[in-house]
Amino acid sequence: MIIGIDLGGTKIAGVLIDPSGKIIMDVQVPTEAAKGREQVVKKLKKAIRMLLHGRKEEVTCIGIGAPGPILYEKGLVIEPPNLPGWKRVNLKKILESEFKIPVFVDNDANCAALAEARGGAGRRARHFIYMTVSTGIGGGIIIDRKIYRGAQGSAGEVGHMIIDPNGPLCGCGKYGCLEALASGSAIQKRSGMNPIALELAARQGDKEAVNIIADMAHYLAVGIANLVNIFNPELVIIGGGLANMREMLFTPVRREFKKYALSLPANSV
Predict the structure, then answer these.
(1) What was the pLDDT predicted at 121?
(2) pTM listed for this prediction
């Protein structure tokens, strides 16, 4: 069996799966990121212990999806914006030392892209871009059915392409990133509402909420057009919490991105 862990800014979610991929058990614990690195590692170990309980001999490896740039071969988490106090944390080494089981650490959006490639919307595609639109914006790039990591393992940070150099400050320290314009945290800063409340207000005809979602769709469309022009993918797959807006978000994104993308890749994606 295999343990899979999603290390998020607010919660740590974990599953134990059998060789067929069936979920045997799942757990969630709060990350408590504001309390620093040691507390997060403590919570991570707690989640793994809950999943291992009475089954350690049956578990062959642990996979961790973590935010921010990751040096995949070393299992090194570099400096994720949503985990204060984390700088070059060797999560692989820490957890292998604790549990004596092989540990693999990758960027969380890369993990999601691989999941889509193996058993989701991308399973019939050779080339696609995965975007997660949630508290932040992340991405994974699949080329020839394999994840593209780049020279250092930081490829796919689609949320940090600059859309407007005069735009708002992003958590990464730069201005006008896609994440600073179109993520859940961005729309919460602008509206004072969480994305679920904003969507509800928009459906009830609130003009400001409608305009905020229209702006978000515009910025996402510009970002997607840039990716389509560069990579010429078969698909762009959007996941994450804000994807639950579905057609309220996707209809304007589909319409708008064609204004900015070159016609050949736009028509084939």
Answers:
(1) 96
(2) 0.88
